[in-house]
Amino acid sequence: MQPLDERQIQVGVLGATGTVGQRFIVLLAEHPFFVIRALGASARSAGKTYAKAVNWKQTSPIPTIVRDTIVNECTPDQFAECSVIFSGLDADAAGDIEKAFRDADHAVFSNAKNYRRDPLVPLIVPLANPGHLNMVHQQRSLHSPPLQKGFIVTNANCSTTAYVVPLAALEKSFGPIESCIVTTMQAISGGGYPGVPSLDIMDNIIPYISGEEEKIEWETLKILGGITEADDGTKTFDMHAKNPLRISASCNRVPVIDGHTECVSVRFKRRPPPSPQQVREAMAAYTPDIQAVGCPSAPRHAIFVHEEVDRPQPRLDRYYQNGAGVSVGRVRQCAVLDVKFVVLANNVSIGAATSSILNAELAVMKGYVNY
Ligand SMILES: NC(=O)C1=CN([C@@H]2O[C@H](COP(=O)(O)OP(=O)(O)OC[C@H]3O[C@@H](n4cnc5c(N)ncnc54)[C@H](OP(=O)(O)O)[C@@H]3O)[C@@H](O)[C@H]2O)C=CC1
Ligand SMILES: N[C@@H](CC(=O)OP(=O)(O)O)C(=O)O
After folding, report:
1. Which among 108, 156, 91, 139 is positioned nearest to 11, based on CA atoms?
2. Which one of 87, 147, 179, 190 has the largest count of C-beta atoms within 10 Å of its C-beta?
3. Same domain, 286 and 359
């Protein structure tokens, strides 16, 4: 394990052996102030060294700082020294485990779907709605008993994350958006390891991903909606209720390993709508607040806008800004709605682990993490 200095914050990774967990390990091993202190996975892995427990699928070797770390079961007593907990847990296990860690006063940054709809839990895509982080005060104070340090923050479904970044840029410059149609082409790694059987996905497209369309349609409203504050100071997520946004999502699994590509059409409330060129310029200039705060994992540019007619492509563009930015291309007029474009995001980076790390960096910088 690395030596600690006063600037460093000890973190634990739950689901450390999984697809998202491995990406956490790669990113955290190089992090300027988070230091991996403890790893957790299922009873199948507990008691083994990380190198023995994991089926490592990354292109770089297992970082030496975790190779010989013994994997624990996911119980808070094994993570007492960790102020921050990153969760890449399977959703079947995440509900009870993440709650136990929050109740034990840990700051939990989760990728799982379990708490995304909780009215006190921020659902944060760091390149879109970092301001929702301030809901954690209310989450702590309404907890019984009130919590000093603990909270849960979730990131979104990886397909939601990809297209909500350009949507946030368009809302900011030309909003409100009135309606949106999105068709996804999702990578196999989105389903975790081993994922869809090779005989199903090779030479094929599967036009169904269980629960995915509903998640995209619902999560977008929470992310792009603001927070309403009542006279007594009580806050609620407004679910885009002031300007109802209609969304239709169609989801497909395609034979790509990493990188979700999505075709998006948008209609604005304002008439006349912005031109494709205005949309291109607004996306390229979009600067989310996390860049101003100086989060070390923030991409220099949130959205790269391609001029080439055949971009973005997963093989060429999924590592843009180390997987932390999104790539947009083919911005053009839509004959049915107003404007259409293609967006690509790395589902295991900004779609998962990178978003959690950015959310945690923001929480540290804003003073929400006590360590
Ligand atoms: N892959 C992606 O692109 C995205 C994934 N997500 C979400 O992130 C989470 C992780 O996904 P992914 O990495 O793909 O999944 P994987 O199936 O690859 O990994 C799941 C992890 O959870 C652990 N686990 C399973 N059951 C238990 C249990 N009962 N107790 C403790 N640990 C357990 C596994 O440990 P062990 O190895 O010991 O079995 C493994 O570390 C999921 O909730 C997923 O929905 C979100 C956005 C994108
Ligand atoms: N279902 C997504 C990944 C995922 O796990 O999503 P969620 O965390 O919303 O269940 C995909 O297959 O690409």
Report:
1. 108
2. 87
3. no
Quote the ligand 1 centre to 37 CA distance (angstroms): 19
Ligand 2 centre distance from Cα of residue 3 (Å):
35
pLDDT (tens digit per residue) in 50-102: 999 999 999 999 999 999 999 999 999 999 999 999 999 999 999 999 999 99
Q: What is the pLDDT of residues 177-195, one digit of tens each?
A: 999 999 999 999 999 999 9
DSSP string, 288-316: -HHHHHT-TTS-SSSEEE--STT---HHH
Q: Is 98 found in the same domain as 29? A: yes
Token digits of residue 302 = 């949130």
Residues 211, 92: one domain?
no
How many residues appear in the chain? 371
Are residues 22 and 128 part of one domain?
yes
- For residue 128, the domain's CATH number is 3.40.50.720
What separation, in Å, do the N-terminal and C-terminal C-alpha atoms of the chain show? 18
Burial class (CB in 10 A: 0-12, 13-18, 19+), 307: exposed
CB distance 57 to 31 below 8 Å: no
Distance CA 164, CA 166 (A): 6
Ligand nearest to the CA of 50: 1
Domain region containing 244: 158-346
Question: Which residues, including other chains, have CB under 8 Å from residue 309's CB and lie 6 or more apart?
Answer: 329, 330
Instruction: Give the atom of ligand 1 at the shortest distance from the alpha carbon of 46.
Output: 38
Tell how far the Cα of 189 is from the centroid of ligand 1, in angstroms.
11
Q: Are residues 170 and 25 in the same domain?
A: no
Ligand 2 in reach of 186 Cβ (< 6 A): yes
- Answer whether residue 252 is part of any domain: yes
Residues acting as catalytic residues: 158, 260
- Of all protein residues, the one whose alpha carbon is nearest to atom 10 of ligand 2 is 113
| Whole-structure pTM value | 0.97
